[in-house]
Amino acid sequence: MAVFANRRLWIAVLAALALAFPLLVTNSYYLHMMTISFIWMIAVYGLNLFAGYTGYLSLAHAGFFAIGAYALGILTVKAGVPFWLAFVLACLFTTLLGAVIGLVALRTKEHFFAIYTLCVGYIIYLIIDKWDSLTGGVRGFIGIPAPADIGPLSFQTPVAQYYLVLCFLVAVIFTMYRLVYSLTGRTYIAIRNSEELALTLGISTMKNKLASFVLSVFFTSLAGALYASFIRFLGPDIAYVSVMFDFLTYLLVGGIGTLAGPVVGTLLVTFLSQQLQFLQDYRMLIFGPVLTLLIIFYPHGIAGGIIRLKAKRAVFSWKQHKRPRNWPPPPAKSGANDM
């Protein structure tokens, strides 16, 4: 009960800090970085659902992120579709494309699946980079509008956009929480632990893996559409492999297969990267070894390491509570009869 209360207390504190952040920090640069971090978190939650809870590593999610962003830009700028309708259509189009790719990709397993999705991600990058008439190619795609007003709510200022992205992030976290602790989430975890055992239990592994993949693509496309509406300029680099490995870094540092991992990892890595900006290209000489040591000593990430530490302490406390007071028994006294 105490653990649950502490968890609720931490959630309340973090929520209060997130709501008060624009009031506490007046620097527009930090507000911009925090909004971008929230967008990355949504994308990492999508990756975490499939890699952390289902056990399949997809390396194409940067491509889906880019498709969501470019689809919003093309629909609003070239097709003249109203912003929120284009926003929904961009996410649906990317999700449908992800379902088609998933039907083929999920016929492979383990490292073959990772290699296949890596190739898919690179193909998406090449299409964006070379299709100048549609995407603008290396020149980039400009003129994407900011989120349109919803009644009296206006999203034209950085603070309003911060709260808009925060609302989407909270919705994604709530969805992930309800999913993970549902029967569907337990099914994904069973597939992750042993797909063969899940099959023997009567679980349709292909159906569940596809559903997990499609939902993860939806989260990633949502992040891409938010990114396009916030930055309002797109280049093919957002689909490159380096962005995919940034997502993986956030997830591994925070804790793969944990609900808090994407938040912890994204904030920590983003903060460290910004603090080491003065080193320019040499900052990786410091950041790289620190990341390597963290993964070696905390293979489950920071959030995963804390969860396992709490579990060990709980087991130790339980053993101490169950142990008799006079344990271990005192040694027998030696006497004359012992001779």
Automatic annotation (TrEMBL):
GO molecular function annotations of the record: branched-chain amino acid transmembrane transporter activity
Keywords tagged on the record: Cell membrane, Membrane, Transmembrane, Transmembrane helix
Membrane spanning residue stretches: 30-50, 57-77, 83-105, 112-128, 162-180, 210-235, 247-272, 284-307
Signal peptide as annotated in the record: none
Pfam families according to UniProt: BPD_transp_2 (PF02653)
Coiled coil: none
Positions of the UniProt region annotated as Disordered: 320-339
Main location: membrane
GO CC annotation: plasma membrane
CDD domains: TM_PBP1_LivM_like
Record InterPro entries: ABC_transp_permease, LivM-like
Cellular localization per UniProt: Cell membrane
UniProt topology in membrane: Multi-pass membrane protein
PANTHER family: HIGH-AFFINITY BRANCHED-CHAIN AMINO ACID TRANSPORT PROTEIN BRAE, HIGH-AFFINITY BRANCHED-CHAIN AMINO ACID TRANSPORT SYSTEM PERMEASE
Name of the featured protein: High-affinity branched-chain amino acid transport, Inner-membrane translocator, livHM
Species this protein is from: Geobacillus kaustophilus GBlys
